[in-house]
Amino acid sequence: MTQMNLLLISGSLRGGSYNRKLVIEAAGFFDGNPVMADLDLPLYNGDVEDRTGVPAKVQLLRDQIAAADAVAISTPEYNQSLSDVLKNALDWVSRVDGNPWADKPVAIMSAAAGRSGGARAQYALRLSLNPFQPRLLTGPEVMIARPDGEFDAKGQLTGELYRDALSALMAKLKAETSCVALMAA
Ligand SMILES: Cc1cc2nc3c(=O)[nH]c(=O)nc-3n(C[C@H](O)[C@H](O)[C@H](O)COP(=O)(O)O)c2cc1C
């Protein structure tokens, strides 16, 4: 197979976002062609959709998901759930005809300030992805707790246990992606 396209999705828009750093680190373990998605979208509003249709940035995101061989998503935890930015993007994309997530290999991860590292956000994200029936990996779970102490000045994840878990998760994503490609051949 030629180089696999990996779409990276960070559920945080913040410049110094740890989830953005995490998903970039994940790409380093995947050895493919990474593309970072832009989730800076307007809030979903049915009136806007009726008047002007789906925004061009939503269509682009939908097309990037469809074109990706695999997707890696990292979500922060906001009040025990996934981020509003990420849920908004999932909702917008669901308004475009055709389901780009169907059978798409997807790995999820999180970085959050609390001790559980975003565990509850990941469960909420699983529920939010279920309607689209991706091939959502069950683990290993990568949940970076108190991420301000876990990344160095270059944005690299430093802890060996976290790096091992992320490496294992991305190896699984690569294997799943190869299986899907073989079945399609
Ligand atoms: C509105 C809000 C709610 C939050 N709720 C939680 C929470 O429930 N659990 C948690 O671990 N961290 C919570 N946090 C902290 C974030 O997880 C933390 O700031 C994280 O680093 C944000 O992700 P980012 O670095 O990618 O922007 C919350 C932060 C905000 C702004």
Describe the structure.
This protein is of the alpha/beta class and 185 residues long. Helix content is 42%, strand content 16%. It contains six helices and six strands, in the order βαβααβαβαββα. Strands 1, 2, 3, 4, 5 and 6 form a six-stranded parallel β-sheet that branches. The mean pLDDT is 97. Bound molecules: flavin mononucleotide (FMN). Flavin mononucleotide binds at residues 12, 14, 17-19, 76-80, 111-114, 118, 147.
Question: Which descriptors would you attach to this protein?
Answer:
185 residues; binds flavin mononucleotide; alpha/beta; Rossmann fold; 6-stranded parallel β-sheet
Compute the number of helices: 6
Supply the CATH architecture.
3-Layer(aba) Sandwich
Supply Rg: 16 Å
The CATH fourth-level homologous superfamily: Flavodoxin domain
Global shape: globular
Helix content: 40-55%
Please mark out the parts with pLDDT under 50 across 5 or more consecutive residues, or reply none: none
* Strand residue content: 15-25%
What is the terminal separation in angstroms? 10 Å
CATH topology descriptor: Rossmann fold
